[in-house]
Amino acid sequence: MKKVQMQLETVMGMNRKVKGSNLDKLEYLDMVIKERMRIHQVQLLIIPIAIEGRLHDPNAWDEAEKFWLKRLEGT
């Protein structure tokens, strides 16, 4: 969380209101959100799809059960 806080302070300064123009600059926060969603996926209510197995598949992900942001760099 410290790295996310530092990035927020660097990009937005003391202005804590996130603007659309700032989102592209918040790369680390974006990686944290994506990795969090991969590990603990949002439950789909409209179209139930069994994706949990794929998101935790060791054949698809290196160290699939590990919260590891490096896997998302550049996405």
Account of the 3D structure:
The structure is a single chain. This protein has 75 residues and is an all-alpha fold. The protein has one domain. It contains 4 helices and no strands. The longest helix is centred in the middle third of the chain and has 13 residues. The protein is elongated. Belongs to the cytochrome P450 family. GO terms for molecular function: heme binding; iron ion binding; monooxygenase activity; oxidoreductase activity, acting on paired donors, with incorporation or reduction of molecular oxygen. Its main location: membrane.
Q: Work out the strand percent.
A: under 5%
Span between N and C termini? 20 Å
Name the average pLDDT.
80
The chain-level structural class is mainly alpha
Number of strands: 0
Main sheet, how many strands, which sense, barrel?
Answer: none
Number of helices: 4
How many discrete domains?
1
Overall morphology: elongated
Helix content: 40-55%
Features:
75 residues, 4 helices, elongated, mainly alpha
Give a topology summary.
Blueprint: H1 2-12, H2 20-23, H3 27-39, H4 52-55
Keywords: Heme, Iron, Membrane, Metal-binding, Monooxygenase, Oxidoreductase
InterPro entries: Cyt_P450 (IPR001128), Cyt_P450_sf (IPR036396)
Pfam family, one: p450
